[in-house]
Amino acid sequence: MTLLSFACSLLGDNFTAIAFAAFLAASLTLVGAIMDITALKKAHAELERSELRYRHLFSRMPIAFRQLDASRLVALFRKLRAEGVKDLGAYFDSHPEFLRTCMDALSFQEANERAIQMFGGGAEGYVGRSLADSWKERPDTFRRAMESRYRGETNFEEETRMVTWDGRVVDVLFTTARVGPINDLEVSLVGTIDISQRVRAQQKLQQVQAEFAHAARVSMLGELTASIAHEVNQPLAAIATNGAAGLRWLNRPVPDIGEIRKTIENIVVDTQRAAKIVARVHGMASRKAPEQAFLPFDEIIREALLFLGHELESRSVAILHRPEPAAPQVFGDRTQLQQVIVNLAINAVQAMTQAGYDDRRIVISTVAQDASTLCCSVEDNGPGIASEHLGRLFESFFTTKESGMGMGLPICRSIVEAHGGRIGAEASAAEGGARFWFTLPISIAADPPRSDLGVDA
Question: pLDDT tens digits, residue range 70-85?
Fold first, then answer.
């Protein structure tokens, strides 16, 4: 219309020119309209293709996907934030029933084919269903997922166990992704991968490792037979001596009750000492399930050195224990950790003896590397480790000893790694010989770490 008005002002009564201008204006308007519609149709088609790609990925991926409606959970979290709650973990501690409330606030919207195969129930059985039944086996994982969400993290992942609709328990890798609006996150995508076969394979491997660990301990006890016999014989000899003395006090014309009491007390003490020695040997020789507990690590070292006391003395080995002043605790199995200390100490003794050293020293030190990691080192003043052997020490069946099995150090590695630590060796150390070290997580009694020991006792 603007073009037409401009043409009329210029052309006056020239109707032919005015008609041409009107035609030109209409054509441009039509072209502009066609261009707008094309762009709109193109954007709509791209949106449809994107949605189709998502639908294909969601339905055909070999991973169990389930889409959740988190709108009620978002409302709950908004209310908590308005009330000033910053730490959801502390809120769960004081309001344990709120965990179930969160489960009921999340409901399924849909599931793909793999999810239906894994969990059952049929596609129609998912819509609106609560998550509560899925988490009956491991509510602790759900709690950590909720705490992660409350902190604003958009992803969460953990190996756990979930319950299917028909009551089966499945080992899974559980992942979440919050895919809703950035401030609301009202839609969540949950992925679960069945890792049952992998878990069973790991359990089988752990069983084999446990057999090797047990065989290594029994073999080590065979090497220490003379020391064990000597250690047991000491309290037994003291019992016999005290018993004979007690009989003499009784056979006097006037029995000395005070002396008799002392001898009996000594007999009881020596009996308990002998029983503890037998218990230590039995603990090292037995095959039992790991007993995880909070343990002062330097106490474990002291007990291991008691076990090795006569062996070290008979081999003229001086040993120094430098404990960590803070006395940190670790969470694990006492027998397994003692096996690591005993094995490393015996290796040092044998290396120094084989090399013909007269001055034999071992230093066992523990130090807290930081607030969460404890490091223990075993150093000797022996011949050290040949550079060509350093990289193979923890390989199965590799040994530098004439009669070695080549399983001691690999078993030590399995035990340490099962406790969440690392182990290594250095060719030379401050004492002049080899240095073996390993780390363990420092534990606080109120918050035990999640760890499945990989080596049976």
Answer: 888 989 999 999 999 9
DSSP strand E in 181-308: where? 187-194, 292-296
Identify the bridge partners of residue 318 per DSSP, sorted by sequence position: 361
Cβ proximity of 357 and 315 under 8 Å: no
CA–CA gap between residue 90 and residue 69 (Å, rounded): 25
- What gap in Å lies between CA 244 and CA 352, rounded to an integer? 43
Q: Which two tokens stand for residue 58?
A: 């969601």
Spatial distance between the Cα atoms of 402 and 407, rounded to a whole number of angstroms: 14
For 347, residues 6+ apart whose C-beta sits below 8 A from its C-beta are: 408, 409, 436
Please tell me the distance from the alpha carbon of residue 38 to that of residue 47, in angstroms, as a whole number. Answer: 14
**pTM reported for the whole predicted model:** 0.48
* CA distance from start to end of the chain: 93
Contacts of 136 (CB under 8 A, 6+ apart): 163
User: pLDDT (tens digit, 9 = 90+) per residue, 137-175?
Assistant: 999 999 999 999 999 888 899 999 999 888 888 899 998
- Cα angle vertex 287, ends 281, 288, to 5°? 105
Helix (H, G, I), strand (E, B) or coil at 442: coil
Return d(Cα 58, Cα 191) in angstroms, integer. Answer: 10
